[in-house]
Amino acid sequence: MRLIALLLENDFLRMLFAAADDEPDTAVSWMTTLIVTAALAAGLIFAFKGLRKYLADIAKRKIWTRGQTWLMIFVGLFPIFFALLAIWYLNRDYLTFVQIGELFTGTLFAWIIYLVLVILGHLVSPWRRELV
Amino acid sequence: MKHVFIAIGGSGTKVAEALVRLLAVGFPTRRDEGGNATSTGDSLQIWRVDPDRSSGASDDLNQALQDYRRIQSCLSDNNATRSLAHSNWAMDIETNVRHLDPLDLPQEGEQDNVVKTLRGVLDSRHNRSGQSVTSSGTLLAPFYEKKDLDVQIDRGFYQKPFIGSAVMSIFSKSLEDDATPGGRAAGLTAFSNTPTNFFLCGSLHGGTGACGVPVIANFLKTRKDQNTGWGWRIGGCLLAPYVTPPNPPFNSLEDGSQFNENDVGHYIERYGNEPAFAGMTPEEKQELVKQILQGFYADPEDMEARAKQGLAYYRDHSADYFDELYLVGKPNPNKLKAWSNGGATQRNPLNSAEIVSALSALNFYAQANTGNQKSYVIGSSTYDIPADDMRLSHLPSYKVGGFEIDAEKVFLASALLQHLVVHQIPWKNVRASIKDFELCRFYDDKEARVGIDEPSFTEALRLIALSLQHLIRENHEQFPTGWNGRDAQEMWKYLASDDISIKDVEQKLAKKLMSKEAKGFVALGNSSAKFTTQEFGKWCPAGDQFTRGDYLRHVWTELFNRCQTQLGT
């Protein structure tokens, strides 16, 4: 939480939540939501890929091409947006204090976190040759 | 081990073609240091003894050898210009056939043995200007009719071994001298003190084969007995009738009947457009008409009787020349539709009896020793098997170092090899595949080799598939092969490149959900194998110094070891 609070002190990141000074709890909560959603999406994407590989009935189907891998990463961006949209819409605080524009910048932030996690995850795993 | 296959006449040449194709698809002759069945390390030379230099059988053999050379070059260093076809997939074969033309006899004078008739050979120096040699005519007269002495024999001996045996005897004598054409072609001096398996093959009932096999075997046996330390072995395969030709376009004249040039012209006018005369010059047509009128052609009525006489001759005189002697034939021979009197027009697909004969050669080369010194039979088919309905499971098996080689399993393993290497290795994504494919790990630090290896494997396996298809082509009324078509159809599923066929095979090789076991099994006739593509991915020779030939042989061995005879069949 302290880390998120520190992040919110950053000018750039304050773009994600302009009313951070007035609603610090909501700001931290929103920030946490963005990061957790991104991490969950990355985890789900890895789990999906791992499961597909495990269930592949033919050995060559276990092998993912670079194109397939990037496509999967790209596809993973959509659930993040829809998840955040749903969370934003269903949470009264977010609906009140997080502006539409901040929803989009928040989504962009989550996407960046997600991309960093997915790419790093590939690079440190045996799947790195499927990415680069 | 050094092997020599001596193909005598057209039937022997067809068996040589079958042998080359069997070796191309992976049939083994020995076991390597690791105990795996292979033919690498052995070498083969093919000698062809036939006056018919331009025969269709010879063209087919040369095509098979060209394919073999291409396969071997693809699996070694892509140098297809060498005459010795070498790789670690199959044995080395000298792809330049040594043509031992029995009419290419030593000459004392320029005109000796130039005319290719029996008289031209046995009485060649008579009546020549400036020569005063007494004619052999009086000596030959009790043995031969005039027509026998004057018929052209450069297309074979027309099922008349009594014509060919005289020429063959002179020819085999000439082999002793490396300076003669025959001696030069055979190069027997190179086999001195070298353990060698000589295998002779020819028909029992034909002309060239019937007279050539015993004469050449006798020659080799004599030399072998004079040099017992050389380690020579002599094997032979006699082909009893397995195909019968149709009758010629017209009948021969009765014995003693005369004909003149006008008669010949009349026959050419009437029959000259028949397929038997296709592609012939007017002179060749005239010669063929004369041969038919005089009865110099393969008479289907006489074949069985001649085979019986031949067998009796072997029983009384020639069987002892051989360490192993095999007899192959069909109780009900296949019937050829197209008539031919030799030459390039005589093109027949491989017959199942020729495959059996080639397997007998492999049995001999593998030193399997069939039966004992007094037994010599491998059946091609029995009365229970229709001559035009053979299956791969009917083929005789042989042993390599005590390890049974079932032809049907070899066919299955080789067909699967093609499917796996061409369609199951992710050639386009080798970098990402090192975890699942050991071969891809091999390419990890030499990725440039993928661009060479993939097309080389594909081309070699295309030619191996072609040989598989040549060997068991379905019986056809116009081109009888003796094969039931089911094996060819079943095998085609593994060789085909269309998406439906590939998916069909993949279904069987796919692993079950949450299990390492394959969903189905791949089968050919009575043989089947069960494995997954995941297992295939792990098959790779050890180390990082292996060749394409090593890899294919390794995968083939894994496949062959997994092939089993299905229960209840």
Separation, N- and C-terminal Cα atoms of chain A: 35 Å
Helical content of chain B (DSSP H or I, runs of 4+): 40-55%
Helicity level of chain A: over 70%
Coarse structural class of chain B = alpha/beta
Write down how many β-strands of chain A occur, each being a DSSP E stretch of 2 or more residues: 0
Overall form of chain A:
elongated
Mean pLDDT of chain A: 87
Total beta strand runs of chain B: 17
C-alpha termini separation of chain B:
37 Å
The percentage of residues in β strands of chain B lies in 5-15%
State the largest interface: A-B, 14 and 24 residues
Key phrases:
heterodimer; A: 132 residues; mainly alpha; 6 helices; 71% helix; elongated; B: 569 residues; alpha/beta; 8-stranded mixed β-sheet; 3-stranded antiparallel β-sheet; 19 helices; 40% helix; 11% strand
Walkthrough of the structure:
- The complex is a heterodimer of chains A (132) and B (569).
- With 132 residues, chain A is an all-alpha fold.
- In chain A, 71% of the residues lie in helices and 0% in strands.
- Chain A has helices at residues 2-9, 24-55, 66-75, 77-90, 92-97, 100-123.
- Chain A is elongated and about 55 Å long.
- Chain B is an alpha/beta fold.
- Chain B contains 19 helices and 17 strands.
- In chain B, helix 9 (261-271) packs across helix 10, helix 13 runs antiparallel to helix 15 and helix 13 (407-424) crosses helix 19.
- The chains are: A mainly alpha (132), B alpha/beta (569).
- Chains A and B meet through loops of A and helix 18 of B.
Topology, element by element:
The complex is a heterodimer of chains A (132) and B (569).
Chain A: H1 2-9, H2 24-55, H3 66-75, H4 77-90, H5 92-97, H6 100-123
Helix pairs in contact in A: 2-4, 2-6, 4-6
Chain B: E1 2-8, H1 9-24, E2 30-31, E3 37-38, E4 43-49, H2 56-74, E5 84-85, E6 92-94, E7 98-100, H3 118-122, H4 137-140, H5 146-150, H6 161-174, H7 181-186, E8 196-203, H8 208-226, E9 232-239, E10 243-244, H9 261-271, H10 282-293, H11 303-318, E11 324-328, E12 334-335, H12 352-365, E13 398-400, E14 403-405, H13 407-424, H14 438-442, H15 450-471, H16 485-495, H17 499-509, E15 522-524, E16 527-529, H18 533-538, H19 548-562, E17 564-565
Parallel strand pairs in B: 1-4, 1-8, 4-6, 4-7, 8-9, 9-11, 10-12
Antiparallel strand pairs in B: 2-3, 5-6, 13-14, 15-16, 16-17
Helix pairs in contact in B: 1-2, 1-12, 1-15, 2-15, 6-8, 9-10, 13-15, 13-16, 13-19
